[in-house]
Amino acid sequence: HIAYDSVVFGFSGEDLKILITEYHNTKLFSLPGGFVGINEDLDQAVRRGLGERTGLSNIYLEQFYTFGNVSRFKPEVMNTILNANGHNPKGKYSWMTERFISVGYYALINYKEVVPKPDVLTDSCEWYSIKKLPKLILDHKQIVEKAIHTLRDNLDKKLASGNLLPAKFTMKELQHV
Q1: If DSSP codes are grouped into helix, strand and coil, which group holds residue 64?
Q2: pLDDT tens, position by position, 79-108
Q3: How much of the chain, in percent, has pLDDT values that exceed 90?
Q4: Residue 12: CB partners within 8 Å, gap ≥ 6?
Q5: If you placed Cys at 127, which of 17, 34, 64, 70 could pair as Cys (CB 3.0 to 4.6 Å)?
Q6: Kind and range of the H or E element at 128?
Q7: Closest Cα partner for 73 from 96, 106, 93?
Q8: Kind of pairing, strands 2-11 and 101-109?
Q9: CA 162 – CA 26 distance, rounded (Å)
């Protein structure tokens, strides 16, 4: 019962953006995430999921927090998503409605290198400005806020913002990030 939620940051040159998915027939928005397989390493699961959504294999990832508050357990949200996709939440997918602890990761990618791809449960996987995010499911808003806070702290310590820019960039572009 371990999941991951990824805050995928991309810089468009003027604006910091985040990759957001929308579930089929629900108008529900979430961060790209997924479940960790029984025989799968956590980092491997995150890289697999982000590779499927971005087409990239070499992604800068940083684990930043574990979200385990009991208030994030809302089986009705997953019931809605499963029903909208023609799956019985009481059948073989019932495990998806159980409580999960989610490990938060943020990824830094060059916005221009990615053509986002939805998965089997989502209609879209699109970039949204951090200033204009849609309402997100469960605790995903708090996950985004924690990721932004962590990213800001790490920018000074690790100069991680270089992963948001092309191989050659100006000091002004770096300062803008």
Answers
A1: strand
A2: 999 999 999 999 899 999 999 999 999 998
A3: 70
A4: 111, 127
A5: 17
A6: strand 122-129
A7: 96
A8: parallel
A9: 36
Amino acid at position 102, single letter:
S
Structure-token match 């000091």, residue found? 171
Round to whole Å and give the CA distance between 73 and 67.
11
Q: What is the number of helices (H) and of strands (E) in the chain?
A: 4, 7
Q: Which residue has the tokens 């928005």?
A: 29
* Length of the chain in terms of residues written: 177
The pTM of this model reads 0.86
3-state secondary structure 13-42: CCCEEEEEEEECCCCCEECCEEECCCCCCH
- Kindly state the DSSP code that residue 46 receives in the 8-state scheme: H
CA-wise closest residue to 72 among 104, 40, 49: 104
Contacts of 98 (CB under 8 A, 6+ apart): 1, 75
**H/E stretch holding 152:** helix 140-158
Q: Could you tell me which residues are beta bridge partners of residue 136?
A: 29
| Single-letter residue type at 1 | H
* pLDDT digit string, tens, across residues 12-30: 777 889 999 999 999 999 9
Tell me the one-letter amino acid at 99.
R
Residues 104 and 147: beta-carbon distance below 8 Å: yes
Structure tokens at 166: 């092309």
